[in-house]
Design brief:
Oligomer: single chain
Number of helices: 5
Radius of gyration: 23 Å
Number of strands: 8
Strand content: 15-25%
Helix content: 25-40%
Structural class: alpha+beta
Shape: elongated
Order of helices and strands: HHEEEEEHEEEHH
Length: 230
């Protein structure tokens, strides 16, 4: 059964050996959410991938807000029967060089978009209401009372990472190094192995390579999160 916030707090407390007189619940909860957020920064898991067909353009308005807590955008298609098309991404600097003022061009079915700030800008400016299909990845919402993490089968990993944050905060560096260097990497590696990519796979021949096969990388003696190649 998936753990909820109170379960995470209890597990982390057992690891750091502190009760509420030593560390308030709100601090442990913060470590748990830091861990979940940091994990979603490190890797985009399948359960973070979202899609919808409910967004739409507005006649004469070329600006669209990002989806809530968006991490990466994969594609946008505009829907208009046989004219439906995938919008083409254009970098903001390139777009501004070619189209310095979009309003002087005729409105129509959008073909390009610029991802800048917290909005998407469409071109041509829409001349009607068009529905959009969007595919993106989404950072998980912070855990609150009674809520389980949306990251599936990551409970042990989130607990271990929160424990590292706890020990670092308490300045117990040796224990932080143990959890970050020995426990977290194996759990993180398992989470990557168990993740479903959802991508088509085409075999590609690769040359044989002999090189350094050690599992240690980075300045692991300074940061236990960089303890192994995973």
């Amino acid at each position: 059964m998936a753990m909820v916030l109170a379960d995470f707090v209890s597990e982390v407390r057992e690891n750091i050996k502190r009760d509420t007189t030593g560390v308030a619940d709100v601090r442990v909860e913060r470590w748990v959410n830091w861990a979940q957020g940091y994990l979603s920064d490190l890797h985009t898991y399948k359960e973070m991938r979202k899609s919808d067909a409910t967004s739409f353009t507005t006649d004469g308005d070329n600006s669209l807000a990002w989806p809530t807590r968006m991490k990466d955008l994969y594609s946008i298609t505009v829907q208009d029967g046989s004219r439906s098309r995938k919008l083409i991404y254009v970098k903001a600097r390139d777009f501004d060089t070619i189209i310095p003022r979009a309003a002087i061009y005729s409105e129509g079915l959008p073909e390009w978009y610029v991802d800048f700030g917290s909005t998407f800008e469409l071109f041509p400016i829409p001349d009607a209401k068009y529905f959009l299909n969007r595919r993106w990845s989404q950072h998980p919402i912070d855990l609150t009372v009674g809520v389980a993490s949306p990251l599936l089968r990551k409970d042990a990993l989130i607990t271990a990472m929160a424990t590292v944050f706890g020990f670092y905060t308490l300045r117990e560096i040796e224990d932080a190094g143990y959890w970050g260097g020995e426990i977290v990497p194996a759990l993180y590696e398992a989470s990557l192995t168990g993740d479903h990519s959802g991508e088509d796979w085409v075999p590609v021949a690769r040359g044989f390579k002999i090189g350094n096969t050690t599992s240690l990388s980075g300045q692991w003696w300074l940061n236990p999160f960089t303890g192994r190649n995973v």
